[in-house]
Amino acid sequence: MNNCKKMFLASGFTLLGATSLHAQQAAAPYLDAYTVPLNQKNALISKVYDKNGNAAKTVILEDASGLFTISKNALKLKKKASLSAEDRFAYPIRVQVGNETVSWTLVADHFIKNKVVAHRGAWKNNAGSQNSITSLKDAIRIGCEGSEFDVWLSADGYPVISHDPTIGGKKVETTTLAELQTVQLKNNDRVPTLEEYINTITEQPKTRLVLELKPSATGRAEELARKCVEMVHAKKAQAWMYYISFDYNICKKVKELDPTAKIAYLTGDKTPEQLQADGIWGLDYHFGEFSKKPTLTRDAKQQGITVNVWTVNNAPAMDDFLKQDVDYITTDEPELLLEKVKR
């Protein structure tokens, strides 16, 4: 992550007004949540919404597990059904919501909750490059709650992973995917795609992805938001995904496409009250913002806004933010932070 404010004017958006959670038509019917609580019989999973955010008649068409039911427009486990830590973690279902058919993957809630987000993966003390499949796998291996990564669109429209607008001397937004993947990364990695990241994360139920949508210098911010959300939905990976962006309009676009998407804002110029009013799930601010605004964590929690802080790499700062009980800490030193949260 870095300060991308200068790119906002080129991002390709007109300003969206403040919207409530379900004010605009979503891309498809959706749920509040895609995770299934463990060890709870007849557990409530989520309400079911049509594209307009309304309750609609819902029928389960396919459920190979036989575990799920619809009751009063809510998706639940059946009366005597429950999931345990020993059960498999992924449960595909297909439902009809009103006149539309949609498929989701429900995921047993084995997800780690230790606040640790590996910044561009766990790369600094391991073999892989930043934002590589290797660094993602290492973040999973060491037990991070999340692994953050950065997404742009290639010239031919593929969401690809790179922190900087240029990689290996090639401008990401004006270079094709095939050309970008000729760039040699450490550990024999190549420049990965969002699809490859999703394929990797959905092989396990412990670590989530934190997808940063980069502001566009070529007026393609809305296209990036749409393609990322479409990819997440096509791969049925909603349970694994958090979104973040420096561009407030990208945040709003993600919420328009998926009203219950977990999206946090990075720039630091919005109050928790503003974020809450616009239906933004969280703030994800540089650690310096918390020094300027000592009550920021408390104010956010009062508004029901999640709090992430970046990029925290030294032990005293980690201790301070753990004392503040922020929800997430993004760091280049996940191993150090993991040692602290285990104490």
Describe this structure in words.
The chain folds into two domains: 30-108, Immunoglobulin-like, CATH 2.60.40.60; 111-342, Alpha-Beta Barrel (TIM Barrel). The chain has helices at residues 133-142, 177-180, 194-201, 221-234, 248-257, 272-277, 287-292, 296-302, 315-324, 334-342, and strands spanning 30-31, 35-36, 44-49, 58-62, 68-71, 74-77, 90-97, 100-108, 116-118, 146-153, 159-161, 166-167, 170-171, 208-213, 241-245, 263-265, 282-286, 306-310, 328-331. It is an alpha/beta fold and 343 residues long. Helices cover 24% and strands 25% of the residues. It is globular and about 50 Å long. A hairpin with a 5-residue loop joins strand 10 (146-153) and strand 11 (159-161).
Topology:
Blueprint: E1 30-31, E2 35-36, E3 44-49, E4 58-62, E5 68-71, E6 74-77, E7 90-97, E8 100-108, E9 116-118, H1 133-142, E10 146-153, E11 159-161, E12 166-167, E13 170-171, H2 177-180, H3 194-201, E14 208-213, H4 221-234, E15 241-245, H5 248-257, E16 263-265, H6 272-277, E17 282-286, H7 287-292, H8 296-302, E18 306-310, H9 315-324, E19 328-331, H10 334-342
Helix pairs in contact: 1-3, 4-5, 9-10
β-strand amount: 25-35%
Distance between the termini: 28 Å
The CATH homologous superfamily of the largest domain is termed: Phosphatidylinositol (PI) phosphodiesterase
Low-confidence stretches: 3-23
State Rg: 20 Å
Cα shape: globular
Extended strand count: 19
Question: How would a crystallographer describe the biggest sheet?
Answer: 8 strands, parallel, barrel
Mean pLDDT equals 93
Number of helices: 10
Number of domains: 2
**Structural class by helix and strand composition:** alpha/beta
Instruction: Using the coordinates above, name the CATH class of the largest domain.
Output: Alpha Beta
CATH topology assignment of the largest domain: TIM Barrel
Helix content: 10-25%
H/E series: EEEEEEEEEHEEEEHHEHEHEHEHHEHEH
CATH architecture descriptor text of the largest domain: Alpha-Beta Barrel
Strand order of the largest sheet: 9-10-14-15-16-17-18-19
